[in-house]
Design goal:
The complex is a heterodimer of chains A (273) and B (385). Chain A has 273 residues and is an alpha+beta fold. Chain A is built from nine helices and ten strands. Chain A has helices at residues 2-31, 63-76, 111-114, 125-129, 143-147, 173-177, 216-219, 226-230, 246-253, and strands at 52-57, 107-109, 132-134, 153-155, 161-163, 184-185, 209-210, 235-239, 256-257, 269-272. Chain B starts with 9 loop residues before the first helix and ends with a helix. The chains are: A alpha+beta (273), B mainly alpha (385). The interface between A and B is large, with 52 and 47 residues.
């Protein structure tokens, strides 16, 4: 009995030294950098907003436009397409896909899926066929960032909800929390299913969650989001907090709806119907 | 004290070997999952938690159920539980080890799991779940071990063990409450979005845990010279009886609210589980089986003659245990995710590999349980003999 207590104490003390050493080493490491501080370089051309938002005019939507938006977004962000034929030489022995495990950032849905329980009994005929683009709503009160146990998904000051693919542990709590089904999980390595890798955006590894990032990487360069560019005017992205912005004018002039407003997440994507 | 575990009969070693074989097979399947990702499971974009988290949820309950022997013995000095308290505590230890393993095998990036500690996030319910699960595991290991050691040396346990026992009681309640909070705080999931989820989880836990303990008492009586005592088992069976009735009652409250209000976002999940939805009805036979098993089990426990029947009792307990497992494990996950937030119906069934990995986790739990129970029963035999 005594012996085991002694050996326990021995192990415990070694562990304590280890715990103590880490902060000391960090301290030494941070000192070695000297007085020089990293300077944040802000791009003068970057597009900024107090709270980014989006207005989608459903009157301007066609199947072609909806498809073009998905295509522009997915190819630029290296979103895998499970229908893509795998290059057997580069990726030998790739197993067959399960379409239920696919990845989507922005995609068209039928009205009654995009707005469940908002479908009127006698819904106007044209809405039955309308391809409603659905994507991350970049909610003001985002339940996904609340659920994430590692802050791998987080909200930026300008309202964009982003993902850190290197911190995500793949618990998928954010996917359970999202009321919009906007998130996808990499059940497998996505790379064999990317037709042409865009070097401007990172590919993801298996085991992490991903979703629309409102083209944060493009806004930083002063460029407009891909879906907006491909939308032929159906999508307008802008600053929701600026009363003079284009999208605030659109919101002032049209009747708009949002997905599942009653949950109080305050989605930043508005639909003109 | 661990030396006891390596002295056993032929049957003991055969059982250990069988468990190791299952663990080995599951490990091979897990290596596949580790290398290729969760694609080997039946989970999907719509159903993002599956068999692993289902079993996790259920086993948190079994772990919490251990408190149903701790409270009577330590708070009410109920002497008849003297002999089985340690069994409840060790059952909690084994269950919690399974819980933690189920979380780990469910992670997409298991090598990053320490991020939960490196970036502690108090607004995430998983943060608290980690604290209470590990805390309760630690408390039960320390308490169980110290009490058993003291019993072997025939002395009183150290003075600081009692406060830890008292602390373990709120921990038991909180592990299952926080696990329910993982589910019931999510805005888009009508099936989980109910204040009665935590009480219902506790009720089914206090049925399933003690029911399993009764079965274990029977097994111990058969294979060792240690007798947990028929009176203790009878008291346990009454606890199971009250708890399973409470669970069914809470469920019926849930059904009333959903059906009478008729709000589709709550009703559609129940419809899917019990009657099928838009032609998808994979869960229907399972759910009815669960409620028939739990209902019959409750009836068998209410009627004294049936409850006191030595042969029937373990069967009743098995019915309740299996019923609660289907209800809380399979039903909770399928009901929550189907239909999806966009109202698509994507059904879920675990794959063979997924089941194998889950079996290996169960086998690991049973291995821990076997060793701990071997210690407990041997020490108790020694002391009495």
């Amino acid at each position: 009995m005594k012996k085991s207590r002694r050996s326990f104490l021995k192990v415990a003390s070694i562990a304590a030294i280890g715990l103590g050493a880490a902060p000391a080493m960090n301290f030494a490491a941070s000192n070695s950098h000297g007085a020089a501080k990293a300077v944040k370089d802000k791009n003068e051309e970057a597009l900024t907003a107090h709270r980014w938002g989006m207005v989608i005019d459903t009157n301007k939507l066609t199947d072609e436009i909806a498809e073009a938006m998905t295509e522009a977004c997915h190819s630029a962000h290296n979103v895998p397409d499970f229908n893509h034929e795998v290059d057997e030489e580069k990726y030998p022995n790739t197993r067959p896909v399960n379409m239920k495990q696919e990845i989507k950032w922005i995609w068209p849905e039928k009205f009654h899926y995009a707005f469940p329980y908002k479908e009127d009994e006698f819904l106007a005929e044209k809405f039955h066929h309308l391809p409603i683009p659905v994507l991350c709503n970049h909610c003001k009160e985002a339940p996904c960032t609340q659920a994430c146990p590692t802050q791998a998904t987080f909200k930026r000051k300008d309202g964009i909800v982003l993902m850190d693919y290197h911190r995500c542990i793949g618990c998928r709590f954010c996917m359970a929390a999202c009321p919009f089904g906007a998130r996808s999980f990499n059940y497998r390595d996505p790379r064999p299913f990317i037709a042409e890798t865009d070097p401007d955006f990172p590919t993801r590894s298996k085991g992490v969650v991903e979703k629309c990032n409102l083209c944060a990487e493009r806004l930083a360069k002063g460029e407009r989001p891909h879906c907006e560019e491909a939308s032929e005017g159906a999508i307008v992205v802008g600053d929701l907090e600026d009363p003079e912005s284009d999208i605030r004018h659109l919101l002032a002039e049209h009747y708009t709806i949002r997905r599942k407003q009653s949950y109080g997440t305050e989605p930043s994507v508005y639909y003109i119907v | 004290m661990l030396d006891i575990a390596i002295k056993g009969s032929k049957n003991y070693w055969l059982w250990i070997l069988l468990l190791l074989a299952v663990i080995g097979a599951g490990t091979i399947a897990y290596i596949d999952q580790f290398m290729n990702g969760l694609m080997i499971t039946g989970m999907s974009r719509d159903v993002t938690w599956g068999f692993y988290i289902a079993n996790f949820t259920f086993l948190v309950g079994v772990a919490a159920g251990g408190v149903m022997v701790v409270i009577p013995y330590y708070l009410h000095d109920y002497e008849r539980f003297h002999r089985i308290t340690i069994l409840g505590e060790f059952l909690a230890v084994a269950s919690l080890i399974m819980c933690l393993l189920f979380i780990i095998v469910d992670l997409g990036q298991p090598t990053r799991m320490l991020n939960v500690l490196l970036y502690p996030t108090p607004h995430s319910m998983l943060f608290y779940d980690m604290i209470v699960l590990n805390g309760y595991l630690f408390l039960n290991i320390v308490v169980g071990w110290k009490v058993l050691e003291a019993e072997r040396s025939q002395v009183e346990p150290d003075w600081w063990v009692k406060p830890l026992v008292y602390l373990s009681i709120p921990f038991a309640i909180s592990i299952h409450t926080v696990t329910a909070f993982l589910y019931c705080g999510l805005p888009g999931r009508g099936f989980w979005l109910t204040a009665i989820l935590a009480p219902r989880f506790l009720a089914s836990a206090f049925a399933a845990g003690p029911a399993f303990l009764i079965i274990l008492c029977y097994i111990i009586r058969k294979f060792t010279k240690f007798d947990p005592g028929w009176e203790a088992i009878q008291t346990l069976s009454k606890i199971v009886c009250y708890a399973i009735i409470a669970n069914i009652f809470f469920f019926l409250c849930e059904v009333f609210v959903a059906v009478y209000s008729g709000i589709p976002s709550h009703l559609s999940h129940l419809k899917y589980l019990f009657f099928g939805y838009h032609g998808h009805n994979m869960m229907v036979p399972w759910m009815w089986t669960a409620f028939i098993l739990m209902g019959l089990g409750a009836i068998f426990l209410v009627i004294p003659n049936l409850r006191n029947n030595h042969t029937l009792l373990p069967i009743t307990c098995a019915m309740i245990f299996i019923g609660a497992w289907i209800d809380k494990a399979l039903g909770m996950i399928a009901g929550g995710f189907i239909p999806s937030p966009l109202h698509h119906v994507t059904e879920y069934a675990p794959t063979g590999k997924e089941i194998l990995i889950a079996l290996a986790v169960w086998a690991t739990g049973f291995l821990v349980l076997t060793i701990l129970y071997k210690l407990a029963t041997t020490v108790k035999e020694e002391v009495r003999g």
